[in-house]
Each structure stands twice: as C-alpha cells, then as structure tokens.
C-alpha cells in the first residue's frame, strides 16, 4: 500500500496498534490456563473425586491413600487419573470440532467476534467451577470439558489473526511478546490467588472456598480483558478462500475436506504438525500434571505449588522474550530444537526429585520457565509461515487440537502409567519419548522449502 503524496504512511503504526491489542488475549486467557487449568482445578477435582470414591472429608483424610475407584459408564476409573482422562476426552471432541470452527472462521469477516464469543462462553464455564463442591465431580468434569473446548476454539481464531496483523519478519517477535505478556498477566493474578489461599484463615474462609474464589477471579479476568482485543483488532474480509456450495456449515465441512486432501501437497507443513503433535503433547502434559505431581508425589501443599507455578510464570516471561531474540539471529526452528533438549532434561530431573526437596523443585521450575514460553511462542510463529494463504484458521485448528490444555496422547499415557504403576514418577519420565520423537520429526523440516511450498514470503532469518 502506497501513501498519497504529502502524507505519511500510517500503515506500520496501525499494524503496531493492532498487534498491541492482539497481545491482550494472551494476557486474558492466561488467567484460566494458569490459575485453573495448571494449578488449582486438577488437584481440586482429584480431591472431589477422592471424596466421592472414598468418603474423604477432613484435611487429615487427604494424607490417606484412596484405594476405591469411580465408576463411569461401567468402567473403573482411578480418582487420581480422572482429570487426565477428561482432558483426553476434551481433545478428542476438539479434534472433531475445531477444524470446523477454523474453516468457518476463514470464511468469515468477523474473526474477532468469533474469538471473543468462544472466550466469553469459556469464561462462564470457568466461573461456574465455583459451584463444584463436596463430591460433585460430575459437574467439574462437564465444566472442564466446556472450558477447554471453548479455549481451544478461541485460540484457533486468535492464532490465525497473527497472520493478518504481522508481516513474516515480525511474527517471531509478535508471537513471543504475546506469550510473554500472557505469562506476566497469569503470574500477577496467580500472585493474588497465592495470597488468598495462603492467608485464607486470616480472611475467615477455608481452603476450599479460597480455591473456588481464585478460580472465579480467573474466569472474570478472562472475560474482562478479552474486551481489549475485541475492540482493538480490525475485521478483514476473507482472502484466497475457495468457494464451496451451500450454507456456511456445509461450506466449512467442504473446505475442511478439501484441505485435508490437499495437505499432502505441503509435506513440510505436515511434518511440522506431526512434530508439534508429539512435543507439544509432552509440554502440555508436564503443565497439566505439574500440580498433581507436586501434591500427590512430592508432598507439597497448595500454597507451595502456587508459589512454584508463580515462579515459572515470571521466569517464562523473560524466557519467551529471550527465545524471540535468539530466533531473530538463529531462526525459530533451531531455537525450538534447543528447547526440546532442555525439556528432556526437565522430565529426567523431575523423575529423580526426592519428596519434600523444595530447593531442587524450585530449580526445576526455573528450568521449565526458561523453555516453556519460548518453545510455544516460536512454534506458533514458525507454523504461521507454513500455512497457505486464506486457510490460516483452518490450519491453526489442527494446530490447536494438540495445543495447551488439550493434548490427548500425553495425558492418556500419563494416566495409564500412573494407574498401572500406582506412581507418578514413571508417568512423568515416560514423557521424554514425546520430546525425542517430536525433535526428530522437527529436524526433518526444511523451513525454506516449507515456506516456499505454502506460497509465502521467506523471512530474512529462518
């Protein structure tokens, strides 16, 4: 676009304003991801499930081992594995739903409204978690399913918008800053929740109510800050979309079928997606299981777990910015590969941590923080370079099917290994396989070839 003679070209300024508004959805949804999905709801739902199965009521009971199982559709389910099976189910549903959401978003001129609608629906489900009490684990299961699916749906559209508001050479920087702001926002709210949970006696409430109030605050945060990107991002007409017959739903299914058939023409894109499926499953399972592992296996109480995840959040803020700077000179693929090596070290060290060894647990948290935001931010921006024009949301729907909080193979393996061994240690160590396989597949991706196959502009550094 060329500015008229005598006028300044305001396009870069307008793009920068949209990028700043776009960052805020990372800030908004991080409250749910951090406070609810990562820290509080997994151990809370596990305790509710244990109460339903074994009748645990008092704090003294929490130190006892629950030998009974829940019975779901005639199947015996360990209370300690329930939350991981729920996440697995959410991802299976997402695998069917999100590609249709993505295909519909690519054909719509109202992407920001679709993103915000799913965000607000998810925040309502998260807010209703306040009412999960006693032994009512069924309500918790339903709300976790709805919130995770809505989160994934909103992120499909959010990630696709990155391709509209950032040039190829800007995407690593923009994606990394979004992730960094998300970790900062999630960390700040988590700090407040740490105070509420730790000082619950001074506030005149019990631990359960403190946890439920913290989850409610995360839901309100998610809903409120979604207003900023909703107001600050500009809607755009869809581009390069092949028209399918019928209404929007039929068009979406038709376009999805065409894309799945056409993916064999983009082998580098497909190889990266397979790599991401594996290594992100490992990352997401570490995140989802961290609080349960620290609680049930290492014996730390809720306040210690929140403080540790808080440390991860603030370290991840700097880690995401650091990885973005490294990618500017070394290329995102190389930096991601280095991060996967660090993830292998993380799960290996996690296996050997003795119970109640807080210094080593905190050191492990610092290691997780350094690689957590960086690998995720650069994966998002790198994948955006490999997507054919006009199919951004559709491809990101496949990407989001294995994104944070919706991984399926990792949580399934973690839950099964725990149920077979009755220990979380071999379950956490089993995740090293996901990083090894993902790294080997990523090593096979040729960035320049993949970007050229997708018909996109090759960045200065790849």
Automatic annotation (TrEMBL):
Compartments it resides in: Cell membrane
Statement: the UniProt record of this protein carries the keyword Lipoprotein: no
Primary location group: membrane
PROSITE patterns in the record: MFS
Pfam families in the record: ATG22
Transmembrane helix keyword on record: yes
Keywords: Membrane, Transmembrane, Transmembrane helix, Transport
Transmembrane segments: 82-101, 113-133, 139-167, 179-197, 209-228, 270-292, 304-323, 335-354, 423-442
Major facilitator superfamily (MFS) profile domain segment(s): 268-462
Membrane topology per record: Multi-pass membrane protein
Name of the protein in question: MFS transporter
